[in-house]
Amino acid sequence: MFNKTPVLPDHPKHATRDMSLALHAFTATGVLVGMAALVAVLDGSARLAIIWLLVAQLIDGIDGPLARRLLPEEATTKFDGYVLDLVIDFVTCVLVPAAFLWEFNMVNHDRSGMIAVAALLMFSCLWFSRTDQQDSESWFHGFPASWNMVVPTLWLLNSSHSVTLVVVAILSILTMTNVQFAHPVRVVQWRVWNMAAISIWVVGVLFGTIWSPNIPALLIALIFVGPSMVAAATVARHIEVTRNVQLFRQR
After folding, report:
1. Residue ranges of the domains in the chain?
2. Looking at the predicted structure, is the pLDDT value of residue 238 above 90?
3. Tens digits of per-residue pLDDT, 147-164?
4. Residue-by-residue DSSP string for the chain
């Protein structure tokens, strides 16, 4: 009477769970890539660090769409993919770029440089803890601490200490505002242009890194495309939102 047939879990749900765990594991490889980038920074290899940061960005760019395409909404595990993304993004988007900024003397090793790095880290921590990071249309509130794009760009453009300090100061302050920045994949408005601009930027940074320090003018122009498009979309969105608010108040 003890030889009862064991109850097996529902196969489709079990398969979905396994797929969910596999995708979480794929996402988690981003922290390994982030560690490789940090080691490259500490070893004094700026170019290798940038390559690793691009790989981390590639992983971050495809894991979300894979999850939305392959997993149904009811697919759950005890691991939270959103929190996992935040943990890895803080390493690759904030911690490694902050070390890069300091290690490669992009800021002076004095009080001004220490304040710049401290501001980058502290304001980024605050942004990552925001409960209103995105609106219903996937626009970020405040600069989304994407230092993995900013710092390599400034390094490849050989920006001066003063320019770097100004950029870090402005973007750090913007993290605490409600100025909206586009998510390059999820925001429908100008998605094609944003995706094209980011793709061109990645190509420019990749080949600029390979060619550095003697970067051809064409690659420098490509490197400018991504940040320029982000800035243009941000300004256009701010004008649009401001105009809509004014129209609403006039009613």
Report:
1. 7-102, 130-159+175-251
2. no
3. 999 999 999 999 999 999
4. ---PPPPPPPHHHHHHHHHHHHHHHHHHHHHHHHHHHHHHHHTT-HHHHHHHHHHHHHHHHHHHHHHHHHS-TT---SS-HHHHHHHHHIIIIIIHHHHHHHHTTSS-SSHHHHHHHHHHHHHHHHHHT-TTSB-TT-EEES----HHHHHHHHHHTT--HHHHHHHHHHHHHHTTS--EEE-TTT--TTHHHHHHHHHHHHHHHHHHHHHTTS--HHHHHHHHHHHHHHHHHHHHHHHHHHHHHHHHHH-
Residues 6+ positions from 42 with CB-CB distance below 8 Å: 99, 103
φ/ψ region of 141 (left if φ > 0, alpha if ψ in -120 to 50, else beta) reads beta
CB 127 within 8 A of CB 145: yes
Identity (one letter) of the amino acid at 189? Answer: Q
Instruction: Name, in order, each residue with C-beta under 8 angstroms of 11's C-beta and a sequence gap of 6 or more.
Output: none
Angstrom distances, CA of residue 71 to CA of 1, 59, 85, 207: 40, 17, 17, 35
